[in-house]
Amino acid sequence: MARWRESLTVLVFLLPVLVLFALFRFLPMLGAVGLSVSDYHPGGGSRFVGAANFVSLAHDEIFLGSLRTTLGYVAVYVPLTVVVALGTAVLLHAVPWGRGLFRAALFAPYATSLVLSGVVWRWVLEPTGFLQHPALVLPTLAVVGVWKGFGYAMLVLFAGIRNVPADCLEAAKVDGASAWQRFRHVLLPALRPAVFFVVVVETMAAFQVFDTVYVMTGGGPVRASYTLAYAVYDYGFRYFDVGAAAAIGVALWAIVLLVSLTQRRAFERNP
Fold first, then answer.
1. For the chain, how big is the Rg over CA atoms in Å?
2. What angle do CA 263, 269, 271 make, to 5 degrees?
3. Bond prior to 221 in cis (omega within 30° of 0)
């Protein structure tokens, strides 16, 4: 009875958050699924069309191109973010003094506005031509995204490094292990949960990239930076094809879920 009362008390305190979460997370998701199977136009009514929107997307070159572009962005952004964040976290851990100052300075870009960062970087990069070259614009946007977002991943990995027992590293050093061997065989295995978390979170962020693209390139040049999230915006707010926009959003959700599950299995299979 005491445990039941304790559980009920916890539920009562959590109930407001759960209600808000349902209102602002689950209901919009259900609404998007409903729109994805309908032919809805603002002011023009709605009718059920089943999977017609998804079938159309399978033959839509704009959607398929945005999917390829998004996958290319993810393939550059996620590994680069993990490498930069992990390297920075290791260096930050090795700093004997001023860690708080360095940590705040490295985290500062993450705390800035995406739109403001995009405007500043567009102003910096416009004279170079990187944003006007179809082959260079996507890696350039990925680098800007890494600069903006690696601070969060760095803090997660830094916290993981701080939790690694110092005795393990010291024992490896006494046994003659080099710095690389200590990192490869002691530190990195201990950081697997943190690395997995960072990979999944940054993958989800990469698939949903929009603000940077909208501000810096508008999806150009020649749709070279036209991502899935930008396609949702275009179909919904430029073409007013809300059903297709919702279908792209549902497809994006399914792709992210599939990739996340694949990443989880990959980490579990390679201890």
1. 23
2. 105
3. yes
> Per residue in 210-232, pLDDT tens?
999 999 999 989 899 999 999 99
pLDDT in tens, 116-167: 888 999 999 988 889 999 999 999 999 999 999 999 999 999 999 888 887 8
Neighbouring C-beta atoms of residue 204, cutoff 10 Å: 15
Cβ proximity of 206 and 78 under 8 Å: yes
Among the listed residues 173, 177, 252, 171, the one whose alpha carbon sits nearest the alpha carbon of residue 210: 252
Distance of alpha carbon 163 from alpha carbon 6, whole angstroms: 31
Nearby residues of 158 by Cβ (< 8 Å), 6 or more positions away: 89, 92, 93, 103
- d(CA 162, CA 164) in angstroms, rounded, equals 6
Q: What is the pLDDT of residue 270?
A: 66
As a whole-number percent, the residues of the chain with pLDDT over 90 amount to 46
> Hey, is 48 helix, strand or coil?
strand
